[in-house]
Amino acid sequence: MNKLIRIDFFHDVICGWCYVLSPRIRQLDLEFNLEIHHHAFALSSSREEMIAKFGGSMAQAKRTILKHWEQCLLADDFNRINVEGMRSESFEYPFSMPGLIACKAAKLQGGNKMYWNYFDAVTHAHMSQHRNIGDLDVLTNIAKETGLDINKFLNDYSDPQRIEEIKDDRAIANEYGIHSTPSLVVNQDLVLSGALDLQSLKNTLIRFN
Fold this sequence. Notes:
four-stranded mixed beta sheet, Glutaredoxin, alpha+beta
């Protein structure tokens, strides 16, 4: 049997490159003996942070981010990213925290596996279906779609402890010198940054078998 390989996956629900990478990690999970841990990493934790980062307005932030989406679409193995769909929407581009808090709430119902399933569902809703994942009603509907207990989900979502868990993830990222998403840490040692292609990832993991 292949050796157990630990993968720590740092990601954000608004990160197009994380959406590109996640299916590749799922494929690796079928081929290697992986123990996958998921960590929230907020690229823009608030509306104010997003405005400051992207040129002074939410409209400018959306324009800039959608240019990044165009690059993600070119790299995506399944051609799933709907740039024009999001461009046509009138709501402000969502910041990180609502979706990440929701992922943490999902984790309480099924551990890392449920976190990953919910994370993938939220990023799909965001990048393929151009839904507003900054809206709690949308996040709650995604929770229903993924089979979560809604009362527990909403109670866990509203608990301030979720914010502390996200802060804890950022502290772990800082220990590894991680400043961007997606980032992977293999066996709590090797840091891999960016949406690496599947073969490159396989070649790396083979070294740990």
